[in-house]
Amino acid sequence: MKKLIPIGAFLSLLMFVQCQPPTGDRATSLTFSVTYDESLGTEGFDGRMLLLISNNDEREPRFQINDNDNTQQVFGLDVEGLKPGVAAVFTANEFGYPIKGLSDFPAGEYYVQALLHKYETFNLSTGYTVKLPMDQGEGQHWNISPKNIYSTPKKVRIDPSSSEVIEIKIENEIPPIEPVADSEYIKHIRIQSDLLTEFWGRPMYLQANVLVPHGFNKEDATEYPLMVFHGHFPNTFRGFRTEPPTADPDDGIYTARFGITGYQYIQEKEAYDLYQKWVSDDFPRFIAIEIQHQNPYYDDSYAVNSANIGPYGDAITYELIPHVEEMFNGVGEGWGRFLYGGSTGGWEALAVQVFYPNEYNGCFAACPDPIDFRAYTQVNLYEDENAYYTTGQFRKTARPGRRDNKGRLFATLEMMNHREMALGSKGRSGDQWDIWQAVYSPAGEDGYPKPIWDKLTGQIDPEVANYWKENYDLRYIMERDWAKIGKSLEGKVNIYCGDMDNYYLNNAVVLTEQFLESTTDPYYGGEVDYGDMAEHCWNGDQENPNHISRLRYNTMYLPKIKDRLKATAPRGHKLENWGI
Asked: 303 with 243, same domain?
């Protein structure tokens, strides 16, 4: 009689197999050989060679790698000094996502593409030498980064049981991106940062995309408060247009995130509405900026000082912001500066307020990235041993990574981290989990960020977790230092989050609120609010849906900012239209 495997044991075995790296147990002689032509360069390139495989030609494979069920396949391979005509060879040993190894890839016809994400060498002031991708004006996106080279997709048959060599020739280079030109109201102010240049060992720059106050005249006595809108890489100041909408409100184009059509029209209308307010006679006059602080690890720096990223917090606060204020008659003091943003920008708004408590007069942190590492999304970094699984005596359960507001799971933490692992080794994927690690971790012995956990298995390093706690756990730092900074933060901390945030960010907000509400001498005096059944990135608007409120950051907090200015602006201030 044939012995049957109990279903529980089978599922445990299946889960175990899915977590393992390619081992060669299922050997394949199938290989992919990738070369590039000397017309693309002769000096030899360092970087991450990516082999991209798709079962459809709806888009190029390089645009089909994601955290959804419809993701296509990527394998990654580090190369150093790769010369034209010399092959980068993919075998059964290269790690992939979502299928881990080439041996397990199902036979069939596919569209294949190769892309080389180029690295440059940095000689850091810390004494380390590292190889990383330099941003080329795109905001650290490997699939569109200028100077990266890639092949034209071609259709091939893939069969792991064969010994075929599939050859791919790279013949294309991604062209440069033209910077956005200045206009009447939007200026792009770029400076070389002395602090960052020293850290990275080469010239490094910061840019402020400035929304200039209506009626600004350098010779006038009027001074303007500064609103810092933190967030992901902005190519210009977003959400502002001087022309009425031209998009069709009935375009029939469905936006799955919000479940609506005609979203392009909505965005254009909101941007035009901001312009109309901006130039109206009684609108408060202020400077608003969005900052370009992309770096070799991500599309922005998280606006704090970091062992791996460099002193971006100081560079922004003490170099860039004073420069902008001097150019556009900013107040130039902490009482006249405010911070807001969502998600990454929400974390940055709170972090900057906490680390520079006297340099800013209030933050409005919407759906912030984890602000208490006891709830690092679904992981307690101080008590859990493994980030990817909770484990019992007879089974283990995968931790969720992304959901919708009904709790339906899109991806686990393991899936999300394995995608990054395929895209880049040593924390070089340019994506979310790797940038958190790059910002929060000490440098490892190799000069790259010391891992918070083993990227393959999820095993947490408690020593690194403690470093994170002491340096970047915002709730812990506020609680630890409240006797010193509490007075400077009084009335300045405002946090908003949907209680069904896609990335479970509400859990850390709840823990932080518990601390804030317990404060005395002084009481924190701010606000924490939640959106019922609201997804990422709810920002405090109880009246409008997310697809509207996310477009109104530059106006929605103005009543609260006015209250702060009324309470803190000195007599004889030179503000205009604030009514204080």
From this structure: yes
Q: What is the pLDDT of residue 256?
A: 85
CA distance 538 to 547: 9
Q: Of 445, 470, 495, at which residue does a domain stop?
A: 470
The average pLDDT across 540-553 equals: 94
- Cα–Cα dist 76/87, whole Å: 14
Q: How big is the chain, counted in residues?
A: 580
Q: Would you call 570 exposed, middle or buried from its count of C-beta atoms within 10 A (0-12, 13-18, 19+)?
A: exposed
- Same-domain check for residues 420 and 366: no
Of 114, 78, 72, which Cα lies nearest the Cα of 421? Answer: 78
Whether 480 is in a domain gets the answer no
pLDDT beyond 50 at 262: yes
Strands 73-82 and 96-97: antiparallel
Q: Give the number of other Cβ atoms within 10 Å of residue 530's Cβ.
A: 20
Name the token pair of 554.
């530059």
Q: Do 281 and 403 lie in a common domain?
A: no
- When pLDDT is averaged across residues 204-213 and rounded to a whole number, the result is 98
Three-class secondary structure of residue 473 per DSSP: coil
Q: What pTM value is reported for the model?
A: 0.93
pLDDT of residue 476: 98
- pLDDT category, 26, cuts 50, 70, 90? low
Verify that 222 and 345 share a domain, yes or no.
yes
Answer whether residue 239 is part of any domain: yes
Q: Kindly state whether residues 339 and 436 are assigned to the same domain.
A: no
Whether residue 282 sits in one domain with residue 342: yes
Dihedral over alpha carbons 300, 536, 437, 398 (to 10 degrees)? -150
Residues 37 and 164 in one domain: yes
Q: Tell me the HSE value of 182 on the side-chain side, using a 13 A CA sphere.
A: 9
Pairing between β-strand 493-498 and β-strand 363-366 as defined by DSSP bridges: parallel
Q: Is there a domain that residue 207 lies in?
A: yes
Q: What is the pLDDT of residues 105-115, one digit of tens each?
A: 999 999 999 99
Whether residue 403 contacts residue 410, with contact meaning beta carbons closer than 8 Å, is answered with: yes
Q: How far apart are CA 156 and CA 16, in angstroms?
A: 31
- Look at residue 9 in the predicted model and tell me its pLDDT: 36
- What digits encode the pLDDT tens for the residues 457-480? 999 999 999 999 999 999 999 999
Q: So what's the pLDDT on residue 418?
A: 98
Q: Which of 470, 487, 516 is the last residue of a domain?
A: 470
Residue 515 lies in a domain: no
User: pLDDT, tens digit, for every residue of 213-236?
Assistant: 999 999 999 999 999 999 999 999
Say whether the peptide bond before residue 98 is cis (omega within 30 degrees of 0). Answer: yes
User: What integer is the mean pLDDT of 524-548?
Assistant: 95
* Judgement on whether residues 283 and 216 belong to the same structural domain of the protein: yes
Residue type present at position 393 = Q
Domain that holds residue 245: 186-370+553-568
Percent of the chain scored above 90 by pLDDT?
A: 93
Distance CA 137, CA 289 (A): 18
Specify the CATH number for the domain of residue 360: 3.40.50
Q: How many domains does the chain have?
A: 3
Q: Position 318: which residue type?
A: Y
